[in-house]
Amino acid sequence: MSETARLSPASIDFDSMTEEETMAFVEAFLARLSYAGLQAVISAAEEKKQAKRAEEREALLAEFQERVASLGFQVSIELTEEAARSRSRRTNRGQPARVKYRGPDGQRWAGRGRPPEWITTLEASGRNREEFRVSEE
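The structure corresponding to this sequence follows.
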């Protein structure tokens, strides 16, 4: 029988354990749980995670308000439940780009990235890139 199996939760001093020791302890017990037991642990962990996040947000809000007040300002900061907006993504992501230039031999280029050799060669010989632009119609 291993040492952890003989210990009762009451005899373990979790407060003196490092986070690394706690994680090793948790992993040992997770390995013993059934699927249903793991689901219960996941639910409990999610609840704890939400509570910790709320505590951190409240502490940060209090710190901001204290710092602002110490500088002589009065501001109102409200917590929101919605996530911060991220940069919007292109709706045509993953789709091939529309052809903007067509060469004399049927070559195509969307106008993105490094210009293809056929257009750089034509430009070097004095031709204008706009001659090869595909009409938008």
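The chain has a mean pLDDT of 85.
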